[in-house]
Task: structure prediction
Amino acid sequence: MCQMWKDRGAAFCGECGRALDRPPAEKRKGNIFHTIIKFSAALFLLSVVCALLADIASAGNILDALENKSLGFYIPLGLEDIVLFRLSGTGLSAYFVIELAVIGLFGAYATYRTFAVRKECGDDPDRMAHTDLSAAASILCVTLATSLIYLMFMAAGGHTADTSWMDRYSRWEMMFMLTNAGLQEELAYRLVLIGIPMAVIAFAKYRDVKCWRFLLGGFGMSKVAFILILVSSAIFGLGHYDGWGWVKVIDAFAGGILFAYAYSEYGLHVCVLIHFVNDTLTLFPGGIFIELAMMGLGLIILIYWIIKPNRSAYRFTDMPSMPPRPEGKVLSMWERH
Result:
């Protein structure tokens, strides 16, 4: 099994997890695009850390604001949701603390996987561009840039998203809601609407208990995943109609596709981090300047994507019907390919 995975070009055996001996990757210089990706990845990691620190520093005020509040956990259906249960009081406070810990662990795991690739491949520019942090940063930058272009275009026609609902909440309540959206919405729209169906279909096909790993994402693109991405993104867009209005539906649909792609290719931890930073960039001092910088970088990355598109991400006819049977180790994107 080790030899089979070595022949596939993997860094680790998918059965036993042992590191495979391979000749070091040929060191070559990257282009300006790789430099931009590195810079955006550094900004992304900085944003994760600063947003978490802002939440921790404000935790006392946030917990006080949550004393008389409740939070529903739901299955999203678009314009209406099925609420499974609600948390309030001490339970909601404990959930917020756990939520910060989970996001912090996701950030640490993404950083570990990124530096593991760097150690393995010798800073190969193409492989480094597809690590967890690099992918998260580039997807977030493009999300911010396309959202800005779309909203400016709509504003020019006299159409704007309705933000009046925010006036009903205090500063600390909004901090909680923006922090919570990154985790709760990704669990609802990506894990529930993509991961669970993928796991069920994979189990029906392979009859292997390892199929539960599809819940974590990172299984790669396939025809089934592609369809689920479109469906979940449409529901994600409709979920923003209440409060924001129809202008936000298209914007959220486009963002949902990028978030869902990150879930499918890189894993749940990556899409949670992207969503978390997307919503919390303005919660810490200097965050607005990082957001503007990411928007500018996103325009450049978007142009690069148009010039050199990743056809495996959208060419439906070339995709396998389902990802292969899950092996003993969750592989990164560059290890799979």
Remarks:
- Strands lie at 70-76, 81-88.
